[in-house]
TrEMBL record:
Entry note: cofactor: Binds 1 Mg(2+) or Mn(2+) ion per subunit.
Binding-site list for NAD(+): 76-89, 282-294
A molecular function (GO) term: NAD binding
Organism of origin: Candidatus Desulfovibrio intestinavium
Domain of life: Bacteria
UniProt name for this protein: 3-isopropylmalate dehydrogenase
Alphabetically ordered keywords of this record: Amino-acid biosynthesis, Branched-chain amino acid biosynthesis, Cytoplasm, Leucine biosynthesis, Magnesium, Manganese, Metal-binding, NAD, Oxidoreductase
EC number from the UniProt entry: 1.1.1.85
Length: 357
């Protein structure tokens, strides 16, 4: 199979983890006889430094032409004091919007090999944690208009608009129901319909859409309760479907309680065109450039890319198996280090995975 992959290394630790992700993809290509053509483009702070803006038109073009987009991480303190319209994060929001990537899939799971890193009480962790947050990614308060800061009655006010159309809700609900079909067949829709009109519409459209998925069990939960239930008993969740802002918050919570933020991949998909695959963690400015960062979330994002963008299930499973073998053999980067394990750097971690492929 011949495919083009557009690489967006981004900032700080981005290029380091990208190097390991690409090395794994090259090893997969060699082993399974595929041809992956890589093209690299600028995004985030790197793009600001080179071109003055976080998302050059050439980057959007390169992404559109590719079969998949592989992103590492953007942002960092270096660009914190810029005008908000050219912050590195704008590059990320911009590419999501430009490629129409409305569905963000963020799995959170507790690998048995890393059970000791879990932040929950052992009896809670023992019940297991294997869920996926399906987050709507191109609507909601992130993009709603009007927005702004202005002076009213002599004082400044800030405002944003939380807004969803029924079509936006329907398409993300479908993604969630389809995802549940491949898992434990449970969807929990998270909103705040006791207070917000947007959420009342959300809930009723999810219920309508559910009529086409009678095999899936649907439940509803207010977002405050969901935040609490994730800590109290995450084993109750299979697929969580929610809007952009609630999903931003809950996906960080779901992933950090596993104790291994540096392990979790994500996929962002649209109705057509290339998907974007990236680790859920940020650019780790504090340890960037020291060969310390954990490349496994990026490597696991490469596995998601192989599976979801190219339909290469065997290859994806091989990468995931190699990652678990490295962990089972006791190798750890600093973020997941425990007593009695072997501390390795970013490059060595990548090499160990490839060795086991
Ligand atoms: C994420 C991040 C982004 C978001 C930021 C960097 C704009 O937090 O991918 O979850 O809020 O979507
Ligand atoms: Mg976030």
């Amino acid at each position: 199979m011949k495919k083009t992959i557009c690489l967006l290394p981004g900032d700080f630790c981005g290029p380091e983890i990208m190097e390991q992700g690409v090395a794994v993809l090259k090893a997969v290509a060699a082993k399974f006889n595929h041809e992956f053509v890589f093209e690299t483009a600028l995004i985030g702070g790197a793009a600001i430094d080179a071109t003055g803006g976080p998302l050059p038109e050439a980057t959007i073009e390169a992404c559109r032409k590719a079969d998949a987009v592989f992103l590492a991480a953007v942002g960092g303190p270096k660009w914190d004091n810029l005008d908000p319209s050219i912050r590195p994060e704008k590059g990320l929001l911009g590419i999501r919007k430009a490629l129409g990537l409305f569905a963000n899939l963020r799995p959170a799971m507790l690998l048995p090999e890393l059970a000791g890193a879990c932040l929950l009480r052992p009896d809670v962790a023992a019940r297991g944690l294997d869920l996926i947050v399906v987050r709507e990614l191109t609507g909601d308060i992130y993009f709603g208009e009007p927005r702004g800061i202005e002076t009213r009655d002599g004082q400044r006010v800030g405002f944003n608009t939380m807004i969803y159309s029924e079509e936006e809700v329907r398409r993300i609900a479908k993604v969630a129901f389809e995802a549940a079909r491949l898992r434990r067949k449970k969807v929990c829709s998270v909103e705040k319909s006791n207070v917000l009109e947007t959420s009342r519409l959300w809930k009723s459209v999810v219920e309508e859409t559910h009529k086409d998925y009678p095999d899936i069990e649907l439940s509803h939960m207010y977002v405050d309760n969901a935040a609490m239930q994730l800590v109290r008993d995450p084993s109750q969740f299979d697929v969580i479907v929610t809007g952009n802002i609630f999903g931003d918050i809950l996906s960080d919570e779901a992933s950090v309680i596993t104790g291994s933020l540096g392990m979790l991949p994500s996929a962002s998909l649209g109705a057509s065109g290339p998907g974007l695959f990236e680790p859920i963690h940020g650019s780790a400015p504090d340890i960037a450039g020291q060969d310390k960062v954990n490349p496994l979330a990026t490597i696991l994002s490469a596995a998601m890319l192989l599976r979801m963008a190219f339909g290469l299930e065997t290859e994806a499973a091989a990468v995931e198996k190699a990652v678990r073998a490295v962990l089972a053999d006791g190798y750890r980067t600093g973020d997941i280090m425990e007593d009695g394990k072997t501390l390795v750097g970013c490059k060595e971690m990548g090499r160990l995975v490839i060795e086991r492929l």
